[in-house]
């Protein structure tokens, strides 16, 4: 799985495209896993392009940077359509923070895969309310491979699938780190939601 197959029995084989999604909560290792796969492709001398949403300026204007400071050069784009032109001739395209793009990202990834590109997309599957986030759930549906990674719940040490917001904002988009979010397991996420706004409490009440 996730090999870099371009040469078969010493002969060039036609390029085959596909989509891989790496999803999970904040701090679950999505960016690390994306960087690991992209670096392997570079070692295999494949042409790699990496994109991130222009709005994600948390760590660096250009680089994709993980919470433990691994990084890889990327191109910030405002719209998914820009990737179609910028990635022409590429073997592998990586996309980080996919949740910040609009739904057109799904069609762009499908077009790239259809024209023979391996597309690796990393992003949050759920927002701070535990609701599906942006185009990530739809990408999971059309992907050949979906990998859900997990963080460690900072409250109890169980595996964490939720990003619990400790900051006051109720906007869906709020850039941040440990200053604004905690990785939490289902139980600790629901416990936290009970003490929040009426909408948040109703999310917890449904469970
Ligand atoms: N609660 C946590 N659970 C797991 N890893 C954490 C946690 N808090 C910080 N980390 C660090 O975050 C790293 C993963 O960072 P990153 O790949 O950027 O995650 P993501 O892109 O999913 O937010 C881990 O290797 C670890 O060093
Ligand atoms: C849950 C949640 C997160 N965000 C923001 C916070 C961070 O800037 C990114 C996630 O980064 P990571 O690489 O996955 O750690 O998304 C948000 O805007 N809204 C949310 O609900
Ligand atoms: Zn917990």
Automatic annotation (TrEMBL):
It is found in: Cytoplasm. The active site is at residue 97. ATP binds at residues 24-31, 96-99. SUPFAM superfamilies: Glucocorticoid receptor-like (DNA-binding domain), P-loop containing nucleoside triphosphate hydrolases. The keyword DNA-binding does not apply. One of its GO terms (molecular function) is zinc ion binding. The keyword Ligase does not apply. Its EC number is 2.7.1.21. It catalyses: thymidine + ATP = dTMP + ADP + H(+). InterPro entries: P-loop_NTPase, Thymidine_kinase, Thymidine_kinase_CS. Substrate binds at residues 173-176, 181. Keywords: ATP-binding, Cytoplasm, DNA synthesis, Kinase, Metal-binding, Nucleotide-binding, Transferase, Zinc. Gene3D superfamilies: 3.30.60.20, P-loop containing nucleotide triphosphate hydrolases. One of its GO terms (cellular component) is cytosol. Zn(2+) binds at residues 153, 156, 185, 188. One of its GO terms (biological process) is DNA biosynthetic process. HAMAP family: Thymidine_kinase. Belongs to the thymidine kinase family. Homotetramer. This is Thymidine kinase. It comes from Hymenobacter jejuensis.
């Amino acid at each position: 799985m996730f090999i870099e197959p371009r040469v078969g029995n010493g002969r060039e084989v036609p390029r085959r495209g596909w989509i891989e999604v790496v999803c999970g909560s904040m701090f679950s290792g999505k960016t690390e896993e994306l960087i690991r796969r992209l670096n392997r492709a570079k070692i295999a001398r494949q042409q790699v392009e990496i994109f991130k949403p222009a709005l994600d300026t948390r760590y660096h204007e250009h680089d994709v940077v993980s919470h433990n400071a691994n990084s890889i050069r990327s191109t910030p784009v405002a719209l998914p359509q820009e990737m179609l032109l910028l990635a022409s001739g590429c073997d592998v395209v990586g996309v980080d923070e996919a949740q910040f793009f609009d739904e057109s990202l799904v069609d762009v990834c499908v077009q790239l895969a259809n024209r023979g590109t391996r597309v690796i997309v990393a992003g949050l599957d759920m927002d701070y309310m535990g609701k599906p986030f942006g185009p990530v759930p739809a990408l999971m549906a059309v992907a050949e491979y979906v990998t859900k990674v997990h963080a460690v719940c900072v409250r109890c040490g169980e595996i964490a699938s939720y990003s619990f917001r400790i900051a006051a904002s109720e906007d869906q988009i709020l850039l941040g780190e440990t200053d604004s979010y905690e990785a939490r397991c289902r139980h600790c996420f629901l416990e936290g939601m009970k003490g929040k706004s009426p909408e948040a409490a109703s999310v917890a009440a449904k469970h």
